[in-house]
Amino acid sequence: MADVGEVLMSVLSTIRVPKPGDRVHKDECALSFSSPESEGGLFVCMNSFLGFGSQYVDRHHARSGQRAYLHITRTCKAKKEDDNNSGSGHPPKKKPTRLAIGIEGGFDVDQQQYEEDVKVVILPDRQEVTSEDLGAMADVVRERVSLSMAGIMAADSVSHTLQVQQWDGEVRQESRHAADLKQLDNGVKIPPSGWRCEVCDLQENLWMNLTDGKVLCGRRYFDGSGGNNHALLHFQETGYPLAVKLGTITPDGADVYSYDEDDMVLDSKLPEHLTHFGIDMMTMEKTERTMTELEIAVNQRVGEWEVIQESGTTLRPLFGPGLTGMKNLGNSCYLNSVMQVLFTVPDFQSKYVSNIDKIIDEAPSDPTQDFKTQVAKLGYGLLSGEYSKPAPDAGDENGASEPRGDQIGIAPQMFKALVGRGHPEFSTNRQQDAQEFLLHFINMVERNCRSGSNPSEAFRFLVEERIVCQQSQKAKYTQRVDYIVQLPVPMDQATNTEELQEAERRREEGDSSALTVRAQIPFAACMAALSEPEILTDFWSSAVQAKTTATKTTRFASFPDHLVIQIKKFTFGLDWVPKKLDVSIDVPDTLDLSTLRATGQQPGEELLPEVAPPPLMTPDVEVKAPVLDDSTVSQLCEMGFPLEACRKAVYYTGNTGIDAAMNWIMGHMDDPDFSAPLVLPGCSSGPGTTPTESLSEEHLATIVSMGFSRDQATKALRATSNVLDRAVDWIFSHLDDLESMDVSEGGRSAAESEGGRDPPPGPRVRDGPGKYELFAFISHMGTSTMCGHYVCHIKKDQQWVIFNDQKVCASEKPPKDLGYLYFYRRVAE
Length: 829
Hints:
There is one protein chain. Helices cover 26% and strands 19% of the residues. The protein is α+β, with helices and mostly antiparallel strands and 829 residues long. Among the domains are: 4-78 and 113-155, Zinc/RING finger domain, C3HC4 (zinc finger) (Herpes Virus-1); 630-668, Orthogonal Bundle (Helicase, Ruva Protein, domain 3), CATH 1.10.8; 703-737, Ubiquitin-associated (UBA) domain (Helicase, Ruva Protein, domain 3). α10 (333-342) packs across α15. The active site is at residues 333, 789. GO terms for molecular function: cysteine-type deubiquitinase activity; zinc ion binding.
């Protein structure tokens, strides 16, 4: 023992006590997915507080010289049967009564109980010191080591602080309209029952407007249920903000919705507001489910394996390399699905997994903050098979039961924290759009692969847009980079129109037994809608120096190795209310896009002159701005968007109308310069601009090295006040806006073009035949991208496999017609 005491004394200066703000990684290894529950436990450095599994702790000791580690091991306690458990290892029978997590009445978070063993280990000889052993050591050693041990164990781990441990979806804020709500003295009195929508006679999901007493139906859901949007339409016509859900009124309160604030709210004057229309809260009884109860029902359904996919089928669990499940960290199924698919792509495997030893050897002192290390760690975790093992069933001590598909899997906490850091959405535990996350991750890969191989090139392709002025018949060609093909859904091309109409008729008649009928859309109709010319009605033609009509045709200037197709299921109605199209599309297993290859300028075809639109003129001042459609700008401002954002939307869509401008706004709302003043080409020293001569040459060179032209790099730096990270984010989120800048044919770099003296004119792209085969797809269940659940299907060795978070099973009926994102790979000829 004396020898151990002497060793501890010699390393005492390296043992720290965690202070507020220190990041303590005591739940997950920085270089693998080992945890205290893993074989060998977790070793936490008592100086840096980084955690390491048994296979990496010696490496950290050798690199850092640190010798003292806190060794934490946990073993799972067997669960005791109680009244709340079904006895089969499934969720408890007790149903949640609150839309909440981790609090009384909320969803059961199934907290596992563990027995914990903690001791100090001294490397390289792995001498062990327990708390009892410290009692016989010198006071200074005992005090410092005990404080460090206690501090590490008491500190919130990084993963713990990143998770939402308690969440209450019922916490609502007082509406800003409640205190001074104006109510019309129109003599309206509402009976205590027997309500109907005043427009369509619907008898359920009814809302009474608290300003004028109108009783109208609620929103229509994606599956056709709910209402007919009449309460919402009434708000849009009148601006009357608050409505109460009839049937939820009790002496304790009611559901109140603020259309202006777009949220469920509190109304402290609700009794007074109801009395105005003859409703006495104290005598009312609940007859309809509250919005909270409806959301609980949806969340419970979403969590059921059979309901999500392939219901009624017994699915065979799969284990092994490339068949590793991922734990849901709280609405992280969008991330799980995307990363499962990406690590099926050879480019990502070779970049991050094949080189994992080299990546780990070159990792910085804090690998938890290194993008390449964390991506490699995730890829190896998914592909190695080390974590693809059946999860232990605490209710089955002998392990006699059949595996249910759940795996130990991996919990990508460090990865999620790193890729989401600083992002307004991906840093939260809210549900997100898988397509937006895919583009966000590709953006990060681009930023972190400025030298060396870049796996995102597998998805990168060039799009050629050909605009023909109908008056002069002259054409304009532009090219832009893209990563995803967005496939429109022409609802008017449904092949089961009669069935849809009959289902709609029965629903309007209140037939609750009517089955939901899904629109059947031919894939060929979607492709035809993608390739057909688009009519531009307010196109400014440089040939005739006036606005005229033009046609725009989009084609592939190159075909990527891997093609991603997004079905545009999420769209906006005529009232700009988001909705999801419930459709079935016969997506094919093989695809030939050869006929959609761009051909470039045709023989004898004349190009539109490169002349800018005329500037606005006043008697005294020349304003360097194109003519903007004031009516479109006004309409956008009335929707609540910032003026400068509206001006940019109209400018960058070329005055082509409210629809195009609105789509631009929806695609750029997360841009850091969304509300910044419009920066025009050729303007210098204007508000929000940076003169060319003050731009950092180092920043310019960095962006140019990524494959963009100097002009493109200059524009990005000007738009972001010469801040490199913001400029890189800006350039990848404004690829459409850069389409007017020159991109060489095939995306060749300057070294490959004549002379080789100019910087690369555009990102490098691969090209090849346009023939593809389907290898994966991601499906979404729910009413919008902001809620619901994602799963993915991946074809492995000619067998479809379903990945549903920690469940990995052989797929019996892959629902290829209901996907959201489809992934194809090129077929070698």
